Amino acid sequence: MSVSTDILHYGHIRIMxxxxxxxxxxxGILTDNVICQYRRPSLVPFEERWQMIKAxxxxxxxxxxxxxxxxxxxxxxxPDIIVHGDEWKTGSKAKLRWEVIRLLExxxxxxIEFPYTKDENINALxxxxxxxxxxxEIRRGMLRRLLKxxxxxxxxxxxxxxxxxxAENAKVHMCNGEEREFDAMWISSLCDSSSRGKPDIELxxxxxxxxxINEIMEVTTKPIIVDGDTGGLTEHFVYNVQTLERLGVSAVxxxxxxxxxxxxxxxxxxxxxxxDPENFGEKIRLxxxxxxxxxxxxxxxxxxxxxxQGMEDALMRAGIYVNAGADGIMIHSRQKSPDEVFEFCGxxxxxxxxxxxxAIPTTYNQIREEELIAHGINIIIHANHLLRSAFPxxxxxxxxxxxxxxxxxxxxxxxxxxxxxxxxxxxxxx
Length: 430
Ligand code: SPV
Ligand code: MG
Prior knowledge:
- The chain is an alpha/beta fold.
- The chain has helices at about 10-20, 30-35, 45-55, 70-75, 95-105, 120-130, 135-150, 160-170, 190-195, 205-220, 235-245, 275-290, 310-325, 340-350, 370-375, 385-405, 410-415, 420-425, and strands at about 1-5, 25-30, 60-65, 80-85, 110-115, 155, 170-175, 180, 185, 225, 250-255, 255-260, 275, 295-300, 330, 355-360, 380.
- The protein folds into 3 domains: about 1-125, 3-Layer(aba) Sandwich (Rossmann fold); about 135-385, Phosphoenolpyruvate-binding domains (TIM Barrel, Alpha-Beta Barrel), CATH 3.20.20; about 390-425, no CATH class.
- Helix content is about 45%, strand content about 15%.
- α8 (about 160-170) packs across α10 (about 205-220), α12 packs parallel to α13 (about 310-325) and α13 (about 310-325) packs across α14 (about 340-350).
- The protein is globular, with a radius of gyration of 25 Å.
- About 35% of the residues are buried.
- Sulfopyruvate binds next to α9.
């Protein structure tokens, strides 16, 4: 059998006892990395999950399972029987199941499936466990864990409770059986400001931004990366990072600009001033010093390519910021091609093989995740897409109502049924 659960309930015990009744039971414990291939990082680390199963008297042997596929284990151990709950007959694990059936046919052996116990108590227990991801102490450290466990972290912007729920729940089933979700959320300054009808110039004050972050955190569980603009005055930033840390935010990214900040996608079309790198490094150093946990991360965002200051400038700044204690570097570009970002990554990686690199591929958005990952990018942020997709839809609907003189014609076609949106919003206690 293979087990990945964080907690053991009578459903698990029951199925393991049934398996043990068939012979000597070996349990494969899924490693933390493998779990991340199909769901969130486990709350209980591998070693503890291992001890938990090993302590069960009816388990003869515990082994490490470091692939989702059963192939290596079947080839190495030649089991007479593989036991599994019958829930994998459909859904994302059905492919794994067929592979097991084929391999057992070839190598001799049998798949025995027991009904998967699901009752109200177990559902409630599993819901309770899941809700732990929202606890600030747990949520805060999740980004660091993801960075350790996954080649890259996939992030989507959220600027309200509703968009937070979209980022939290969006899921697609890929042809290869993989279930894809976003790992984390980005609270973009552009989207936060724009959704309030304000320009992206650090006009929305920190208290309002923190209200928005709270609004999103209240209804979601995924880790949060906050766009901290320039970080403002160092004297203020050292307080603001502590607030974010206490809330359970995982990271803040601040950009090395000073004075009136404008959105980076304007580039040199508007007047923007890059900060003195030593001063910016000092802002990071002092903010890191103010933190109380090692979970919270501060990323330095380099605007040299945006402001056409050249690759050498970007690399020089990266060195200063890393030495000041930055937990990672965000390299921004507004080119259609990723070439300058890739060049930066190659050169930066030469000196800093392990420092996370963040990219926001808004303009070079034809490049697939795999290619960004292959160039050493660890966090990929889709920075404004929920806002940009909602806005044209809203405008189209507003214009349709004006044109038709009622909302029952074209506008209605553009809208989802009220029931669907109501059902999308979870209700506590139901
Ligand atoms: C944001 O999303 O607010 C960003 C990214 O800072 S960008 O708009 O590309 O500058
Ligand atoms: Mg921004």
